[in-house]
From TrEMBL:
GO terms for molecular function: calcium ion binding. This is EF-hand domain-containing protein. It holds the Pfam family EF-hand_5. The lineage of its organism: Bacteria, Pseudomonadati, Pseudomonadota, Gammaproteobacteria, Lysobacterales. Residues 37-72, 98-128 form the EF-hand domain. It comes from Vulcaniibacterium thermophilum. InterPro entries: EF-hand-dom_pair, EF_Hand_1_Ca_BS, EF_hand_dom.
Length: 128
């Protein structure tokens, strides 16, 4: 056995800030969920996003998950990420409304079977 202790991932519902950084900086919204280096398993990722535990991710769950990072970054709580709140201290302001709409657009693109939910396969699919 390795003496290196295995650290149980115990962060519950907080996506790594990098997810949102990618969203904020990309201009076009990439599906952070699909980044293999950040997500061991689409199933793990789904389980953490899946607030009601029904095995699939609704738009509300998707936005809640992604919105958490926005809230964390929005230090003055004005529902806008200004340059000083963005990674690197620069970039165009991002409003919460715009962020949510961008997430919704991404969600719809990823929802390959158009059932209104993302399953693990759709979460893991490359950005469409
Ligand atoms: Ca769900
Ligand atoms: Ca779907």
């Amino acid at each position: 056995m390795s003496p290196v202790s295995y650290r149980e991932p115990n962060e519950k519902r907080r996506p790594p800030a990098l997810f949102f950084i990618r969203l904020a900086c990309a201009g076009t919204v990439a599906v952070a969920a699909a980044a293999p280096a950040q997500v061991r398993s689409a199933y793990d990722y789904l389980a953490r996003m899946d607030g009601d535990g029904d095995g699939r991710v609704s738009l509300a769950e998707y936005q809640a998950w992604m919105g958490y990072a926005f809230e964390a970054m929005d230090r003055n709580r004005d529902d806008t990420l200004t340059a000083d709140e963005l990674p690197g201290g620069r970039g165009r302001p991002v409003t919460l409304a715009a962020h949510r709409e961008a997430l919704a657009a991404t969600f719809r693109r990823q929802d390959a079977d158009r059932d209104g939910f993302l399953d693990a396969r759709e979460l893991a699919a490359p950005p469409r």
